[in-house]
Amino acid sequence: MSFDVLDEHEQGELVQKWLRENALAIIVGVAVGIALIFGWQQWKAHRANQTAAASAQYQALADAVASKKTDEAAKIAESVRTQYPDSTYAVLTALQMAGVAVGKNDLAGAADQLAWARQHAKTTSLQALIDLRIGRVKLAQGDADAALKLAEAVPTGNYDALAGELRGDALAKLGRADDARKAYETALAAGGTQSVDRNLLQMKLDDLGVVAPETEKPAT
Questions:
Q1: Residue whose C-alpha is closest to residue 54's, from 89, 14, 9
Q2: Alpha-carbon span 121 to 135, nearest angstrom
Q3: Phi-psi map region of 217: left, alpha, beta (phi>0 left; psi -120 to 50 alpha)
Q4: CATH 1.25.40.10 occupies which residues in the chain?
Q5: Which of 1, 37, 142, 167 has a 20 to 30 Å separation from 112 between CA atoms?
Q6: How far apart are CA 104 and CA 99, in angstroms?
């Protein structure tokens, strides 16, 4: 007579046999699992430490820039870009140094910093902001067409006021006053919390003058 169900003794024997045959694999599996958990925790701690260190250096950079200690700022910037090239702080550092270069009228240096920042920026919003900064440099270098293309390529909803102002400046430079006026009006309408100087924007619009109304043709 055969039985489909093993009794408790037989089950115990089979379990012990299986454990003996697979003991090494079980030990290795447990060890690997523990190592992975420990490694993950270590990696997270390392990332947190890296972020904190990069943040501290960026703050030191911002302080140096605000104090006009450009040599010190340059050293800190190089350190951030070397140690944390894949961090957002490295991109923000490049933006800071681009501003320093513009202050020295070093447009080529600013362009290099912005090109590096654009290459390493990971979010659409940050990329759009960098494109607008590049557009500003292009306009200052006399390339209004390139500035206009950059302004028009910025997706709607990303710095609409800043993009509108740059578009207006480029169009005004190209002698397209009517289009520039519309761009400034769009920028003023977008306004909101964006970092635009509304008074300056209104002055730019006023400088374009008022559109003369079309005279009606006499009825014949």
A1: 89
A2: 16
A3: beta
A4: 124-209
A5: 167
A6: 9
Instruction: Give, in order, the Cα–Cα distances in Å from 202 to each of 42, 132, 169, 180, 211.
Output: 54, 20, 12, 12, 15
Query: Do 172 and 182 touch, CB atoms closer than 8 A?
Result: no
Distance CA 148, CA 171 (A): 7
The residue with tokens 């501003």 is 99
Exposed (0-12), middle (13-18) or buried (19+): which is 116, by Cβ within 10 Å? buried
The CA-CA-CA angle for residues 58, 117, 158, to 5°, reads: 100
> Tokens representing 75?
């050293």
- Token digits for 216? 């009606």
Q: For the segment 124-151, what is each residue's pLDDT rounded down to a tens digit?
A: 999 999 999 999 999 999 999 999 999 9
What is the CATH architecture assignment of 124-209?
A: Alpha Horseshoe (1.25)
This model's pTM is above 0.70: yes
Contacts of 53 (CB under 8 A, 6+ apart): 83, 84
Which residue has 């761009």 as its token pair?
Answer: 183
